[in-house]
Amino acid sequence: MRAGVYDSGIGGLTVVKSLIEQKLFDEIIYFGDTARVPYGVKDKNTIIRYSLEALEFFKNFDIDIMIAACNSVSAYAIDELKANAPFKVSGVIEPGVMALKNKIPNLDANILVLGTTATIRSGKYERLLKQNGYKNINSLSPSLFVPVVEEGLFEGVVLETVARHYFEGIDEPDVIILGCTHFPLIKDEISKFFPSSLLIHSGEAVVEFLQKEFLLNQTFKQTSLKLFASENPDKLKKIASVWL
Amino acid sequence: MRAGVYDSGIGGLTVVKSLIEQKLFDEIIYFGDTARVPYGVKDKNTIIRYSLEALEFFKNFDIDIMIAACNSVSAYAIDELKANAPFKVSGVIEPGVMALKNKIPNLDANILVLGTTATIRSGKYERLLKQNGYKNINSLSPSLFVPVVEEGLFEGVVLETVARHYFEGIDEPDVIILGCTHFPLIKDEISKFFPSSLLIHSGEAVVEFLQKEFLLNQTFKQTSLKLFASENPDKLKKIASVWL
Fold first, then answer.
1. Model ipTM value
2. Both B73 and B108 in a single domain?
3. What is the pLDDT of residue B92?
4. Which domain, by its residues, includes B235?
5. Measured distance CA(A100)–CA(A214) in Å, rounded
6. Are residues B135 and B107 part of one domain?
7. Do B186 and B219 fall into the same domain?
8. Per the CB < 8 Å rule, is A158 touching B161?
9. Are A74 and A160 found together in one domain?
10. Is the domain of A72 the same as that of A122?
11. Which helix (H) or strand (E) segment is A140 a member of?
12. Rounded distance, CA B65 to CA B43, Å?
């Protein structure tokens, strides 16, 4: 079973980590569009165009499923990907909402969605949560989290000050959707501000979703990983060897 | 006299501001590659490819000079632009060094170059400064300054914390080159840490350079400005109307 995992950069590796841990695939082809990262500040048409280029890339491999491990892609381009792909396609937004539904059946729960500007502007999490009956939804776009993570500042005074800038004055929600694949890397800092909130992590959510929706219940002894990047693949490999 | 001003995003507007103030042109065509910003983290070949695409764009206009108002482009692609352009081309690095030379003739002066990762990695400022006889050169890449500026945080605790993260423990230099067109927007914060340092600003440096090297000494009653962006031109227009 072979998966193609697509992200704007390195954040999707947090999803790869969950896929490897759960042994769902014997091979993962990862493509990070590092030459054009970040997607989170780009507009809809640009994101669709880049996503369809990534789709063409994956057609070179005999993959069974393409996973858009990027919330901005999942927010804007998932329908276009599904319409044009000769293989199965999964994003991360629907899995995230499904995971929340399994864990928090109370429809009055206070939900905070954290995402990039593009993801939040799309309103896709909000719509899907409302369709599932949830009523109390807030969303927030802490735009500096991605560059802070890309700078390698997973803890310390810079991250803390940036987090306070966005979180100060916000009531603690029951559940927080980490609606950007970079955010699991700073979940400890997020939990400092909201210690009682349950965090929904795209990687774990995708694993559950693939098992339930696509019936991927076979497991493999090990997963080989092939990394591709539109620029600086060595940086991607270095980070992957640290994270995974 | 018509100029084409090229930047990866909105930062080049700080150069446009100086050009308008000095009335060097009666028309400026601005192109911001906002769909692919930021360039400062990209590699050499990507920056050259994008720059040559911008050159093709400017061929549609009858411009007299193209100004690469982006240090990352000036660091990596200026020779390719000059080799392929049917009009004059200026970057911002050579003008910056010339401006420094005019203001600080003392070759023992301590110089600090601030720039994006790409600009600093290129070593272009250092080489040019050494060729001009300067000996004491340090460089620093405060990568979070660009996203902080793009987030509109021109002052306050986030900017201050980020600045302290990069500047703490650094001796005050005699002169600081603001080697990224975003940095003039936070020069007050930079001066808080280094109150006695002279700051070199690309916009002012380019004006002097064009007057001296290209003998642009005519002035015009007013400058009309046409803005183009590879995505979200409305955002660019909004920011331009505030800054200019």
1. 0.85
2. no
3. 97
4. 2-91+204-243
5. 19
6. yes
7. no
8. yes
9. no
10. no
11. strand A136-140
12. 26
Q: Are B208 and B87 in the same domain?
A: yes
Q: How many distinct structural domains can be found in chain A?
A: 2
| DSSP letters spanning B173-222 | PSEEEEESTTGGGGHHHHHHHSTTPEEEEHHHHHHHHHHHHS------S-
Residue B92 tokens read as 């911002």
DSSP letter assigned to residue A105: -
| Strand (E) or helix (H) holding B77 | none
Give strand pairing partners of B176.
Answer: B112, B199
Q: A151 and B143 in contact by Cβ < 8 A?
A: yes
Tens of pLDDT along A173-227? Answer: 999 999 999 999 999 999 999 999 999 999 999 999 999 999 888 899 999 999 9
Q: Residue B74 is part of a domain; what is its CATH number?
A: 3.40.50.1860
Q: Long-range pairs for A220-224 at CB < 8 Å and ≥24 separation? A: A220/A1, A220/A23, A220/A24, A220/A25, A220/A26, A221/A23, A221/A26, A222/A23, A222/A26, A223/A19, A223/A20, A223/A23, A223/A24, A223/A25, A223/A26, A223/A27, A223/A28, A224/A26, A224/A27, A224/A28
A interface with B, Cβ–Cβ < 8 A, is 35-37, 41-43, 45-46, 143-144, 146-148, 150-151, 153, 157-158, 161-162, 165, 230-232
Q: Model-level pTM greater than 0.95?
A: no
- Start-to-end CA span in chain A (Å): 20
- My answer on whether A99 and A61 are in the same domain is no
Closest approach of chain A CAs to the CA of B222, in angstroms? 33
- A128 and A157 inside one domain: yes
**Residues whose CB falls within 8 Å of the CB of residue B126, separated by 6 or more in sequence, listed in order:** B113, B137, B139
How far apart, in whole angstroms, are the C-alpha atoms of residue B65 and residue B58? 10
